[in-house]
User: Fold these one by one.
Assistant:
Number 1:
Amino acid sequence: MRAWVVGRPGPMASGPLELVEREVPEPGPGEVLVKVEACGVCRTDLHLAEGDLEPRRPRTAPGHQVVGRVVATGERVGVAWLRSTCGTCRYCLRGMENLCPRSTYTGWDADGGYAEYVVAPADYVYPLPGDRPAGELAPLLCAGIIGYRALARCDLPPGGRLGIYGFGASAHLTAQAAIAQGAVVHAVSRSAASRELAMELGAASAGDRPPEPLDAAILFAPVGDLVPPALEALDRGGTLAVAGIHLTDIPALNYERHLFQERTLRSVTANTRADGRAYLELALAHPPRVTTAPYPFAEADRALSDLAADRVNGAAVLIMG
Ligand SMILES: [Zn+2]
Ligand SMILES: [Zn+2]
C-alpha cells in the first residue's frame, strides 16, 4: 500500500512527509483492519510533521480522522485520535480517560490514516453511516469532537456570548454547534475567507476583536500571544479554553487585567470516547454544514503546506483515489 510518513520532522518547506510503499498492516488481537476512504487533515498532523510535537516512533503515518470500511465485515467506521487507554488508572476509572497517562494516539503512537489501510483497536472506533460522503464525515472525527469538548470546557452559559479565536476546521464546526444551542458567536480571525465563512454560518461578528465582552471563549489558533487579549476580552466570570495540543509560549499575564474578576484559563486535552459518541450522535442527527477542501491522497504534503500557510478554508481532507 501507499502511505505518507514523517521522515525528518521540520518546516513543511524541508519536505518532512515522504510517500512510501509498505505492506498492508496485519490487525492484532482486538484490532480491525480498515480500508481508508478519506482522512481529515488536522493541525496536529502539521505539528507532528514540523516537529512541534516530539515523534513517539520513527516514520509514522499521521492522520486521525479516518473514514473507511472494516475489511473483514464491510462496516463503515471512523478512526479518531484516541487510540487506547489503560482502563485501570485513577483517571480512566473516574471517566477522565482523556487524561490517562498510558493513553496512545492514532498517527503518533501508531500509524494513522495518511495511508491506504490502517489498523485500530475495535473498542476505539466509531460506527458511521454508510450513505454519507466520506469526505464530509472525516472532519467530524477530530475537528468536530475536540471542538465539542472545548465548547463544554469553556462553560458557556445558555444564550451566552462566545468568542472563537482562529476560524479553521474545528472552529467552523464548533461555531455551528454553539449557535444551535443559542449562543451569540464572535469569530476572531486574520483570514478574510474565514471571516466570510463565519458570517455565512451565522456568527454575529467576525473581525480583529470581539465587539462586546464575552462569557466564554475558545482559542483554536496555536498562538500563545492571543491568550492575554482573549482573557482581557472576557466578561467577569468568563472562561477561556485553549483547544489545541500545542501552543506557543504565553506572554506574562497581569493579574488585574487578565485574570481578576474570576476569569478562568483552562486547557482541553484530547477527548473521551463518551465525548466522541455524544458529538457524533448530535452531528449525525443534525448534520452541520461541513466546508471541506479536498485533496487527492497523493497531495497530502500540499494539504499540510496549505494549512501551515493559512490557505485552507474550512477542513482539508485527503480523498483516496
Ligand atoms: Zn486532530
Ligand atoms: Zn488509564
Number 2:
Amino acid sequence: MTIMDRDSCLERLRQRPEFWDVIVIGGGATGLGTALEAAARGYRTLLLEQHDFAKATSSRSTKLVHGGVRYLQQGNVSLVMEALKERGRLLENAPHIAHNLRFVIPVYDWWEGPFYGVGMKLYDLLAGKLGLGPSKMLSREETLKLLPNIEANGLRNGIIYYDGQFDDARLAISLAATIADMGGTPLNYVKVTKLKKSGGLVSGVQAQDMETGEELEFDGRVVVNATGIFSDDIRQMDDPAEQRLIAPSQGVHLVLDGAFLSGESAIMVPKTADGRVLFAVPWHGRIIVGTTDTAIENTPLEPRAREEEVQFLLEHAALYLDRDPTREDVLSIYCGVRPLVRSPGDKGTAVLSRDHVLMIAKSNLVTITGGKWTTYRKMAEDTIDAAALVAGLEERPSQTARLRLHGWLEHPIETRGLLSLYGSEGPLVQRVMAEEPGWDEALHPRLPYFAGEVAWAVRREMARTVEDVLSRRTRALLLDARASLEAAPKVAAIMAKELGRDESWAKTQVAAYRDLARGYILKPTLTHPPPRAGSPLSRGAGEGL
Ligand SMILES: Cc1cc2nc3c(=O)[nH]c(=O)nc-3n(C[C@H](O)[C@H](O)[C@H](O)COP(=O)(O)OP(=O)(O)OC[C@H]3O[C@@H](n4cnc5c(N)ncnc54)[C@H](O)[C@@H]3O)c2cc1C
C-alpha cells in the first residue's frame, strides 16, 4: 500500500520503531533513487530529507535526460554510453514524465556542419538499440522551418539529433511514491543532525523533525549519505578530519515566454565563445535558456545567479534568437549547484569529474555523490550493491532497470494544463478538482495549473508548504515567478484547510514564499553596470564537439 502521508508515517514510527536495513540521507535524485533501489530489493528502507524532496540541485536542472554531448567533447565515451543506456530506461519506466525531444544544432561556420554531423553520428552509434532517432543534416530552409525564431543572419544549415526531456521535481515525487509503493518510507522535513555509532561503526542517525523540532532516532544496518553538495558535511559528521571533496559549481537558467522559440525543437549550441554548451529548450510552454558553470565557495539551499551569468545568458540567447530577450522578458531565473567531485590539481570546475563517486568510510558510512539525474538509477544500483555488502544484507539482484515508476502510463493522455504529468493518476486528480467549486479553475491566468492540484499535492504528495506546491509539485515558480507570487494566497488558503492549519499559518506561508520568489525575479534595471563577461562575444570557433 502506498503511504505518502507524513503525519501518519511519523506517528507509526513513534509507536513502533523499526530497525532499518538501509537509511538514506538526502531526498534528491541520488537519495530517492538509492532508497528505491533498496526498497525494490525488499530491504527495509527509510529516506530522510531535511527540506522537501528535490529542494536542492534536483529541481534546478536543465531538464534533459541525456548522454551529454559535452562529455563526448571531453572524450568520456564510457560516461556517455552509460548515460544513453539510462536515458532509454528512464523514458521507458516513466513515460508520463520523460519524453523524446528533437534538438537542432544551428550551423553558422562552414566547418561546423561536417564536424558536428560526424559527432552526432557517433552519439547515435553509442545509443545503439536505445537510440531515440537518427541524427541528420538539414538544409538552411529545413532548419528555419524547425526553428522559426533562430537568428537567420549567417545561418548555413543545421543538424538534428534526439535526446530526452523531463520534469525533474515531478520525477522526484514519482520516485518518492514508488519507494512507498515498494514498502519503503520516504520522509521530508526530517534533518539528520548526528550519526549514531556503535563500536566505531555507524549504526543509525539522530534527526530532527523540522516542523516541530522533535528529536528523532533511527537505527539501521547501513547509512547512505546521498546529500549532493552537502555530502562533505555528513562525511565530517562521521569524521571531522575528512577532507572536503565537493567542488560546487553553479549553473543558471533563464525562463522566457514560449514565443521566443516557437515550434517543438530545442536549440543546442555545442560551443559558445568561452567554450560552453548552451541550450534553449521548450518546456511546459516556456523556453529554458542555460546554463553557466561558475565555481562557488559555499553551498546555500537557495543559490543566486551572479550578474555576469545573467549577462552571459542574455547576450548569448540574443546571438541565436531573432528577438533579443531583455531582463523584462525573463519570467523566472533559477540557479542550481553541481556536486562535482574534486581530484588533486583541478582548477576550473568544467574539467572536474561529472561521473559519480562512491566512497565507503572506515565507519561503514556509504557516500554516493556526483553523477547526474539521467544516471540516478545506475548510481543507486552501484550504491546498494556496496551498501548490502557493507551491512551484510542478504544479496538480492537489482530490480529497477525495468521497474515502472509510480503513475506509469505508456501513452500519457493529452489533457488540460499539465495533468498528463500525473500519468495514470490524472483521472484521480481530476476527481479532486471536481470536489469543490473553483478547484477546476486555473490557479492564475498565466499558469497551467488548477486549484484542485493543491489539495492533491497535500493529500497524496506530501506537500507541506506553499513553496512545495508552487516550486516542486507544480512548477509555477519556474514558469512565471511573478504569477506564482500572485497565486500564493490562494494556495495557502487551500493548504491551510487541507492540513488543518489556521489563518496565521497561511499568512506566514505567503510571507515566506514572497521572500523566496523574489529571488527568482530578475530586477528590470541595474543600479550598477555589470562587469562584462571575459572574452568578446563571437559564436565561438575552433575545436570541440
Ligand atoms: C545547473 C544544472 C543543470 C543540470 N542539468 C541536468 C540535466 O539536464 N540532466 C541531468 O541528467 N542532470 C543535470 N544536472 C545534474 C543533476 O541535477 C544532479 O546531478 C542531481 O540533481 C544531484 O542530485 P543529488 O540527489 O545528488 O543532490 P541534491 O538534489 O542536492 O539532493 C541532496 C539532498 O540532500 C538533502 N540533505 C542535505 N543535508 C541533509 C541532512 N543533514 N539531512 C537530510 N537531508 C539532507 C538536501 O536538502 C538535498 O535535498 C544539472 C545540475 C545543475 C546544477
